[in-house]
Predict the structure of Aminotransferase.
Amino acid sequence: MAPELIETLLVTADRSLPLLGRHLTRLAASAQALGYHCDEAAIERDILAAARAPAGLEPYRMRVLLERSGRYDIQTTPLAPLPLVQEILLAPEPLDSREPLLRYKTTFRPWYAKAADWLPAHPQIFDMVFFNEKGQLCEGSRSNLYLLLHGQWYTPPVECGLLPGVQRAELLETGQVRERVLEVDDLRRADGLRLSNALRGWIDVTLHDY
């Protein structure tokens, strides 16, 4: 059975969807590249309806799952606040930058399985950050990575082996970050570390050292 395509969206307390256009564009592009049927207009309509449904004044996490046939499911759950201090941990094993599915958000993510099992029990660790077979930084298991070097924020290019996140696309388009190949050693010499994803935005983190 083919994996499902995923989009994970933030529904704000006032029920807006800040990056909806970018999510829909990425979903449609992934569907076209991988041979999935995608009725973008119907999905957008149902996303907007689902965003209005939850009661209360808290932000929500919305998950859209698209099957190859075009059937889709939309799920919403409350988004819990993060602890004030968030850390990252360097993964013990490298990614293979030649794996094509790293560039698409699907339910087939075996390379992140250990991180997905470990992270819920360690809430102070926002994410586990991965590197590839060349020693180049890639991404977190659920986020994109940014390093501040000489006054400029940089993020690894897609060719290093990573998912082009929608928040990452926004930061690149607005000129707040640039692409650059980053080495593992850059983690310790960087003047700042940040991660981003659609749910949490662009957040400061620190490197966890044992």
About this structure: The chain has a mean pLDDT of 95. DSSP finds five helices and eleven strands in the chain. The chain has two domains: 5-78, 87-207. The longest strand covers residues 5-11.
